[in-house]
Amino acid sequence: MAKLGDWIEPHPHGIHVRPADAWVDPSEPVERALVTHGHADHARGGHARVWATPETLAIMDARYGPQTGEPVAYGETIRLGDVEVGFVPAGHVLGSAQIVLDYRGERVVVSGDYKRRPDPTCAAFEPVKCDVFVTEATFALPVFRHPDTGDEIDKLIARLHANPDRCVLVGAYALGKAQRVIAELRDRGHEAPIYIHGALARLCELYADHGVRLGELIPVAGVPKAAMAGHVVMCPPSALNDRWSRRLPDPITAMASGWMRVRQRARQKNVELPLILSDHADWDELTDTLTEIAPREVWVTHGREEALVHWCEQRQIKARALALVGFEDEDD
């Protein structure tokens, strides 16, 4: 008897959908790639053909140059070989998708990275009933329970108001996290200009072009130091303690990341204001999602696989860890 999902083959460099002769999020160039979202640990350049959402293709174009892309809108279904392929929102970053694969009466959902919390910069996660659910496990430990997003943004605004002669310098990844912090600030009523590092400009413009409200953004280059006092300044994490930050008015160093739950990480990065803000599901979101979807099997990728596999086995859900490589915490 054939095993469930035996037409999907996990390899270290990606998931091969054999009857479609296509790969999901391959870390090496392939002939046919199905890409869940634009982060560099999932979307690589050099593929002969790429199927992804229009937003993800735009992000890949911006990062790697023009792609031979086939846009697939949310809710649209295409056929590759004998496999029906659909893209459904994952709630991770702009354009992020779960890839739904239907073949001979079986349904496999490769969720990519996802979260369940509201995010003004991307479409919300949509649960899809399936036989096999391939889930991430970035924060798959019970210690990781992310706080309320609004409370974290309020901490940032309060620190800014309490220190009008300083700026708050927020380190946030260039794709997704930076735009989310800005959009969340706007939703909390912070309409003042926000100053940005040059490395964030291109993707902020892309988000704005796709209808995400980011408000007035001003590049730091050439702005007098005193003009940035009392303002939020955004930069990639690598610039937090770089010479670049010396041009700022006595910055309060903040970082937006799910890893700010770990105090040692905050101390290592000299972060004065840790903001626990993640684009990945926390422990409760992961387990609640598995309970809601109720798949026959769960395949777990990149992260704390052991804890989530154990949780599944305790509930008589067949589970396995996939030995995929090349996935990083770029988008935490």
Automatic annotation (TrEMBL):
Q: What class of enzyme is it?
A: hydrolase
Pfam families the UniProt entry points to: Lactamase_B
| Highest rank taxon of the organism | Bacteria
Stated EC number for the protein is 3.1.-.-
Give the UniProt keywords, A-Z.
Exonuclease, Hydrolase, Ligase, Nuclease
Could you tell me which residue ranges the Metallo-beta-lactamase domain spans?
Answer: 11-173
InterPro entries referenced in this protein's UniProt entry, alphabetically:
MBL (IPR050698), Metallo-B-lactamas (IPR001279), RibonucZ/Hydroxyglut_hydro (IPR036866), Xnuc_lig_assoc (IPR026360)
Gene3D superfamilies xrefs: Ribonuclease Z/Hydroxyacylglutathione hydrolase-like
Q: Does the keyword Transport apply?
A: no
GTP-binding recorded as keyword: no
State the Gene Ontology terms under molecular function. Answer: exonuclease activity; ligase activity
Its name, as the record gives it, is: Ligase-associated DNA damage response exonuclease
Q: Which organism was this protein described from?
A: Sphingomonas aurea
Taxonomically, what lineage is the organism?
Bacteria, Pseudomonadati, Pseudomonadota, Alphaproteobacteria, Sphingomonadales
